[in-house]
# Entry
Amino acid sequence: MDKFAFIFHPLDLSLYADGFNEHHLKKMKPSLVEGVMKWLPPFKRETITGIKSLTGDEIEGDMILVSLLPEQILSLDNNFVLNRIIEAGKIAEQSGAKIVGLGAYAAQVGKKGVLIAKSLKIPVTTGSSYTVSVAVEAILKAAAMVGIKLVNAKIVIIGATGSVGSICSKLLVAQGAHVVIVARNYSRLTELKNEMLADIPDAAIEIDGDINKAIRDADIIITSTSTPLDLIEVKALNPGTIICDISRPKNISRESLHNRDDILVIEGGVVKPPGNVDFHFSFGLPFGLAYACIAETMILTLEKRYENYSIGGNVSVEKAEEMGRLAKKHGFKLAKLMSFDRQISNGQIEKVKEARSIFKN
Ligand SMILES: NC(=O)c1ccc[n+]([C@@H]2O[C@H](COP(=O)([O-])OP(=O)(O)OC[C@H]3O[C@@H](n4cnc5c(N)ncnc54)[C@H](OP(=O)(O)O)[C@@H]3O)[C@@H](O)[C@H]2O)c1
# Structure
């Protein structure tokens, strides 16, 4: 059976404690736990079993844990973090994996995977191509459920110049949406706008460096950034707005939505792999579901495409579409729409739909 590996890190302390059933960690001083985590070497957490493609092929994969929190990955010495990820990659190599995926902020390290690929004998992917494909599918589905037509809808993409955000922007502009691209670096935003205009000269594209200004009057907001901060000022949102939060860690918290059941927040990149997939531990998603970045590593393994795929920001519309096609071939599906790790109910959709229609009339 062909094998892959996936390098992941805890998105927060609470998930870390839950994943190990060590709930007392939540009561300890965070700086103390973080200090210990920093010195823990990477190790194999579990083997994912039960992945069976529609073609009948079966694969399995090892989840390799790097015990660093997002804030630690961002703030610790770059070489220290890079070496931790490479160490994890060596464990993957030794376990017989033929390709290794990088999850969340592990995908930001070493020039977005390039330096990790150079240090290993097996290829590397970040999963960004399939993440784009799944996120856009989820946005189209949620928009249809709430009654938003994409043509002329105002879609704000925060983190638009990133690997995921830039391709989401291109795919949504191609649907006729009016897109507002947001990030901090203005020259990269201008470059992206020009690239998009070269493909679709009459596209409606605006640039904004101010998130709170950009989100006013938005129909749909996408967050796809490399910051763990809460980015959205909820009181600025119109009733009936959809937010697709692709970022891991998330850019919008459940707490910030207090009393705003007229806003629909959906998860950006969650899929149901084919077969009876079991991760054998909890990492924050319901049983049998996976993040699209892990799924991309699975798909490349099923295809025996042992090549560096979505690294170094090398993501494109073509790659996202290719991943979408291969996912269908093997039976990977967008998971039922979820909000804050729970399935969205018809009642939630109806509330958002109603709020939207009252506001628009
Ligand atoms: N669900 C999944 O399976 C999955 C898979 C892949 C990725 N992801 C997540 O998707 C997110 C994006 O990944 P990526 O690879 O596209 O990252 P990336 O290429 O590094 O892009 C990050 C983007 O965020 C912007 N940004 C960073 N800090 C910001 C801030 N404070 N305010 C506004 N914009 C900010 C950056 O532009 P500036 O620096 O100019 O601001 C850039 O446009 C990450 O959180 C990642 O973990 C999820």
